[in-house]
Amino acid sequence: MITQHIASYMAFLLTEMERDAKVLDTPWVYCTMLPFLLYAVYMGFKWYLLLAPITIPLTTFMVLRADPSKAKSLWKN
Prior knowledge:
By secondary structure, the protein is mainly alpha-helical. It has 4 helices and no strands. It has one domain. Helix 2 packs across helix 3 and helix 3 (about 50-65) packs across helix 4. It starts with a helix and ends with a helix. The relative contact order is 0.07. The model has no long low-confidence stretch (mean pLDDT about 85).
C-alpha cells in the first residue's frame, strides 16, 4: 500500500519535471531573460513544496542545528 503511494508520488514528480522541461524548451522563454528568471523562481518555490516531505524536515534540522537554543523553546509549554 505504501509502495503504491510512493510510486504515484514519484510518477507525479516525473510528470511535473517533464512539464517544466517542456516549458523551458519553448523559444519564447529565451527571448529575454525575464521570463526565464521568473519561471526559475516559480520552479524553485514549486519544487520546494513538491518535495516538502524531504525539504521541510531537512530545513528544520538545519535551523535547529544552527541554533540549538531554538529547539529548547519549541518544546516549552
